[in-house]
Amino acid sequence: MRTALVFAMFLHGSLQVLTEVKYVGDQFILLPCNFHTFEFDDLTVVWSRSDLSPSTVHKLVTKGTELTDQNQLYKGRTSMETDALETGELTLNLTNLQWADSGIYTCAIRSSKGEERRVTDIELLVKEQFPSWATALLLFLVLVLLVVVGCLAYRFRHYFMSDYQVEIDSGVETVVLPCKTPVVLPQDATVKWKDRYRKVHVFKNGSDQPQEQDRFFRTRTKVNEDLLKTGDLSLTLKYPTDGDTSTYTCTVYSSDGDVLVNKRVKLSVKACQLDVDEGAESVLLPFRTTPELPGNSDVEWSILNKMVHVYTKGSDQPEEQDQFYRNRTKMNEDLLTSGDLSLTLRQPTEGDSGDYKCILNSRSIWRVKTVRLTVKGRSQVQDQTEDTSNRSSSTDPTPLMADQPV
Ligand SMILES: *[C@@H]1O[C@H](CO)[C@@H](O)[C@H](O)[C@H]1NC(C)=O
């Protein structure tokens, strides 16, 4: 009566499939199965896999283990507790796990009358475990690959990056704006370097075209001779100043006007900064540019709207300079031939602090530079001198030593 009820429940109920994951070479796995067998006489417990033939994995009868129809795959690898039928613990111990052990295991009981009940279905997944040294090797190879790719990307970054940044300090003699292309360029291509609104350098019909470039860049630029062959279109800019801070584009046109290459380079040149103490004999505001400047060039040093120094028609023009700077400024006599436009300012005071701008202007050439001058006031300087004189004085001991208990 009871048996019939239990079997009826089985027929209508649905079995839950448990999934166990193990690895090849694991010592053993316990496939759990519980059933109140003690309420029945003469039961048979069968562990089986329906996908195998013969399907029996392990069989337990009242008399003991019965392995006559056991599948060869499980020979000597299965066991159950000897008192399983009394306790109802029908757990299967499967040892020395193999990849082929993957499958759905059914734990079923059979009554002497031939009725059968499935108690548990358990899906076992036996995986090939990746050895740890192989994992380490794989990780290492991936790392090496990443480093190699990273290095190559860095080495050939000019080819891939459309935007490139260059930052330099004021006073650097030359700067290279990189532009490289892997594209094979036709020998009649035109290369144009531009900043936001001016032509910086033009290479056309196999040679540089200085008459096409802006006065600001004339005699300051250079590109490689065989640039179309090598694909290295980088521009060398001489005597860069803060006035060159801009975004530059490097463009290559075919003879039909098609754009073959278009890259951008951001150049930032830090403004020149000078710190000097009030009371100094003089301060030199540096500005060096290309030598052999045209004889008709005008040079002006100014601050805000005050004229600091004016040089036109080959000589200084003191009558044009602001009263405040009268007799305090000096420029080299050969400034146009040497290209050294530096200004000497005598006896700088706090009031001289500010941004000095130098402009050289001729019909064919234009140059500009800013120098930020900071003159530390006398009061600050005096404090410092008093401090140092106190400390260095040998006649009276320093306050620190006097206060020290002996
Ligand atoms: C399962 O069987 C193996 C081999 O006989 C044995 O070493 C292990 O202790 C058994 N596990 C349990 C929980 O009985």
Automatic annotation (TrEMBL):
It comes from Ameca splendens. Residues 1-19 form the signal peptide. Residues 25-120, 173-268, 272-374 form the Ig-like domain. It is found in: Cell membrane. Residues 377-406 are annotated as: Disordered. InterPro entries: Ig-like_dom, Ig-like_dom_sf, Ig-like_fold, Ig_sub, Ig_V-set, T-cell_Activation_Regulation. The keyword Phosphoprotein does not apply. SMART domains: IG (SM00409), IGv (SM00406). It is a single-pass type I membrane protein. Pfam families: V-set (PF07686). This is Ig-like domain-containing protein. Its main location: membrane. PANTHER family: BUTYROPHILIN SUBFAMILY 2 MEMBER A2-LIKE-RELATED, T-LYMPHOCYTE ACTIVATION ANTIGEN. It comes from the Eukaryota. The chain crosses the membrane at residues 133-154. Keywords: Cell membrane, Disulfide bond, Glycoprotein, Immunoglobulin domain, Membrane, Receptor, Signal, Transmembrane, Transmembrane helix.
